[in-house]
Amino acid sequence: MSLNIAVLATGDELINGEMADTNTSRIAGILGAHGYTVGESRVVGDVEEEIESALCDLAGKREVVIVTGGLGPTEDDLTARIAAKAFGRRLVLNDEALAQIRAFFAKRNMEMNPRNEKQALLPLKSTILGNRLGTAPGFTLHQQNCDLFFLPGVPKEMVDMLEQQVLPRIQQRSGGTAPLQERILKVFGLSEPRVEELFDGQTLPTGVALAFGVDFPFVHVKLRASGESAEPLLDRAEVQTRQLLEPYVFANGQETLAGNVGRMLTDAGLTIALAESCTGGIVAGMLTELPGASAFFERGAVTYSNTAKHDWLQVPPEILQNPGAVSEACALAMARGIRSTAGSDLGLAITGIAGPDGGSPEKPVGTVFLALSDGQNEQVKGYRFSGERDRIRRMASCMALEWVRRYLNSRL
Amino acid sequence: MSLNIAVLATGDELINGEMADTNTSRIAGILGAHGYTVGESRVVGDVEEEIESALCDLAGKREVVIVTGGLGPTEDDLTARIAAKAFGRRLVLNDEALAQIRAFFAKRNMEMNPRNEKQALLPLKSTILGNRLGTAPGFTLHQQNCDLFFLPGVPKEMVDMLEQQVLPRIQQRSGGTAPLQERILKVFGLSEPRVEELFDGQTLPTGVALAFGVDFPFVHVKLRASGESAEPLLDRAEVQTRQLLEPYVFANGQETLAGNVGRMLTDAGLTIALAESCTGGIVAGMLTELPGASAFFERGAVTYSNTAKHDWLQVPPEILQNPGAVSEACALAMARGIRSTAGSDLGLAITGIAGPDGGSPEKPVGTVFLALSDGQNEQVKGYRFSGERDRIRRMASCMALEWVRRYLNSRL
């Protein structure tokens, strides 16, 4: 049985455009994965009349309303009080909520600020939704034909509470649905229009829906199906998609490019060292995001200056003079140098012009050279990336990681 | 005179969370800069009943409604037809719209696809809003006390139409407004409740509104005022706030911590070199975000292993043995070592346990030591940060940059 659901996000920084409302999309995504569609979503500011009006309106129209924000300890946090007013209930000190807040601080050997007590003032006849990750308990109440769930605005806390406490209650009310199953294949090296073009003339198994998303510079290919035969259908669709898009698929589901490169290095028992110039440490940061990086990574050099390239990587002064730091020759020397210095199996180097300054007619902004050395074979190539500084740095970082992934793939 | 404004975005990919609704935030930002506040914003899918219901509801409640999406030539593009139905008007072929669409294609020496004619079918008594950048003309109509503006979903086209055609009409209706002016002071080192607590008992100048935002680990303090005396009022409020929150204010407006540190280093004519272990290159990446970093930064070491700490930074093996890599002694040695190796004015080192593994009772996950050396004076301190791996790394990175900022501040 499907439910009539709305999502309401509150906060001045959301309505005035300052901050992106990521909570609403997250909620819609999680509900969607379980077979539920959201009918409408709304955003209002920290304005009493707007919040009250939205709560009353939605409670009258919908079966489930999920509200985020306004549960904090500051004066701008109005949700509980307004919910009480909107639904004609008294605002009372909820003992269970107060106990949870106290326990949260005690567990961390921290003092509870008196302001945090405000977070235990909830509408009469609310049920607490425990917050494992923060101070603000959420709460739920039933009004007319509607179940309203009030969650914190902090994304990690909101998601945890939604999955652990709200979803089961929703599922109980709806008697379960046919969860939507989804496979996400992540692609690097093809533009979205190009990926879409490749799917023209392809017939996916009946019952499998196709959608695309973009997370620059990656394209996400999403395959969805529901019902009992969802899994075998998606298996077939996934095989078909991989055949179509090889070798551009670098990850699936929640995997990341850096995470997969790290995993493949660990599995292969190989180590890598990095020499970064224009990317300034971004690649090292990405490779060390996941725990266990010390299995394959023991050092990286951010050689932003020519002197550093010479000192740490033994790039010869002649090369730095001509053809210069942004060249195939320099990238190669950097890759060999870091590999040798670190004693690692692989050496990866990135040198380029991130902009907006530093470009020339021969080497415009966006010119980046990558080099990869394994002691026996070497690979070096120049690119011309476009866009602004951060976009060029991000593109160069991802391309460098993709080089490593493809190298490791070729060894399998 | 202020106006009662709502924004409505339509599209399945928006309501199901696949795509971020950036149009609504853009609109709110542009309107905000001109002194207008949005009362509420809504998102619905490509569902007739939902779109119709939202249009009727908002037209009855608001003075201005801005609608984005659904003006394209495909079958999913329903907006014009549903607006006609919602407001009881016939859908008619609008000659001016058709002429504009034809002219758009002619100008580009392209054929008009017959599908594009659908884009000229608009509700009776609509006024065209010309689209300089795409095929779909927008349109506006007056219903009850409400002016509705229907804009394309393509962001570039939407923004252009909003600024060129919608804003002047809104300003005409409102007789102009007093643009809202805002100052944002960014704070590091105090929690949001603590910042709020400090404002208790403070009286800001009349007419200045105060709001808070959080962007972990930073707190944003926002001061707002409108009208002719906005600027002097905000000047006074800003002085008062800075006095209250010194020395925790690290930036204002769009400035960032890393950006300000870079600027201060450049102004002081000082250079810095980094030795990062658990932060894996994040600090170097932050410092090189803005152009011109080569003025103060020439190298950083990501010494993830003990061997690298010894090789590149000359950290003595005895220290790596005992008290170990995560210690005051090691952090100090790293800071001295990178400073000496790089020949920079300042050496900054970070070594710690980002987790989730690697902790012990004496040195739990989150234990991080920072050290800063300028050749004459040294500073070293241990912290216990909490949270997950990425949160610990982010906190350590920001604290390290804050150390440099405060050091540079003390020299002014």
UniProtKB/TrEMBL annotation, chains A, B:
Residues 6-173 form the MoaB/Mog domain. It holds the Pfam family MoCF_biosynth. Gene3D superfamilies: 3.30.70.2860, CinA-like (3.90.950.20), MoaB/Mog-like domain (3.40.980.10). InterPro entries: CinA (IPR050101), CinA-like_C (IPR036653), CinA_C (IPR008136), Competence-induced_CinA (IPR008135), MoaB/Mog-like_dom_sf (IPR036425), MoaB/Mog_dom (IPR001453). Belongs to the CinA family. This is CinA-like protein. It comes from Syntrophotalea acetylenivorans.
